[in-house]
Amino acid sequence: MKRNVELVVISDVHLGTYGCKAKELLKYLNSIQPKTLVLNGDIIDVWQFKKSYFPKPHLRVIKKILSFATKNTEVYYITGNHDEMFRKFTDFELGKLKVCNKICLDIDQKKTWIFHGDVFDASVQHSKWIAKLGGKGYDLLIIINNIVNWFLEKMGKEKYSFSKKIKNNVKKAVKYIGDFEMTASELAIDNHYDYVICGHIHQPQIRDVVNKKGSCTYLNSGDWIENLSALEYHDHQWKIFYYDDHKHLLKDDEAEEIQNMNHSELMKIVTNFSG
User: Fold this and answer.
1) Which residues contact 40 (CB under 8 A, 6 or more apart)?
2) Which domain holds residue 61?
3) What keywords does the record list, in alphabetical order (predicted)?
């Protein structure tokens, strides 16, 4: 039985990389029936895209998204820095699928501003090669982390996140996350938004921010590499969905296919879009 959800926001999936948890994401997507699905950037990792590595589960995630768009779900694909190639397709529409750089929604009469968030990242804007190098290093870290966690699970011990440990203990990382959240929130307040929703920093969050000019709620959808998280809005309430908290309730992914489109045809589309 699929859960009906008014709005779902996911980001930072990084399809096409070794760290992407595509199978887990597919289970989640197969468990819900959203009225609106927002893909808030870095869904396909064009920076690290290789024809030699794009497994079937990654392609099936794309198929599932397209399946939503051919039925009754409004799908917004907001571009991020890792899929910036798609920015040349801004305002492209295919059925209920729309490609854009940001969106503004009215949710229960509350103004909602949704964008990826890389606009705040100076390393992306001014030193792209450094950012790309950092992305490759992060991907390698995740690969090593996955191997370590495999051994930990075999030994009956809890998983360990190298990246979270670094983020929580390196002062610059902690400051960057705090600055990012405050910058997004202050801009939202200045522009009279009630909600501001970002991705980019792989840090799931819902928090109220208040300053002298007003208040807003800052939200971040996290990622599908480490946190395996999404934002859901239903019955006038926001919540963060964590896959690890619900995986025992999710069935194995269903083999939903899009009519007249096989894996090789879909791979051609991904390759063409990736440049």
Assistant:
1) 9, 10, 11, 78, 80, 114, 115, 116, 197, 198, 199, 221
2) 3-273
3) Cell inner membrane, Cell membrane, Manganese, Membrane, Metal-binding
Residue 43 in tokens: 């869904």
Within 10 Å of residue 157's Cβ, how many Cβ atoms?
10
Lowest-confidence region among 43-52, 144-153, 169-178: 169-178
* Residue 110 neighbours by CB distance under 10 Å: 13
Integer Cα distance of 267 and 55 in angstroms:
10
Assign residue 206 the CATH number of its domain.
3.60.21.10
pTM of the predicted model over 0.85: no
Nearest to 121 by CA among 130, 111, 109: 130
* Residue 12: burial class (beta carbons within 10 Å; 0-12, 13-18, 19+): buried
Mean predicted confidence (pLDDT) in 178-187: 89
